[in-house]
Write a structure and sequence with these properties.
mainly alpha, 2 helices, about 0% strand
Length: about 80
Amino acid sequence: MAKYRNKKKSFQTVTFKLSRKQMKSLKNYCKARKTTPTKLIKKNIRYYTENFSESMPKKFYATSNQLDMFKEPKSQDQTELF
């Protein structure tokens, strides 16, 4: 009977910076909830890290600049009110 070796998992490291106030807040929250900052962050991003490895729904793609909706239409029938 052949022995199978477990395939080594590959992990990626993600880093980001927090201000002192943000870190203090994170630590206080974790202390109150009896968890660690790493577990808290992983739990909150789990939806995004597990559900989109194959395909991305169109609703999550960035759209074009939405400020275009405030532009006035170009029409020759416009009259000045003031």
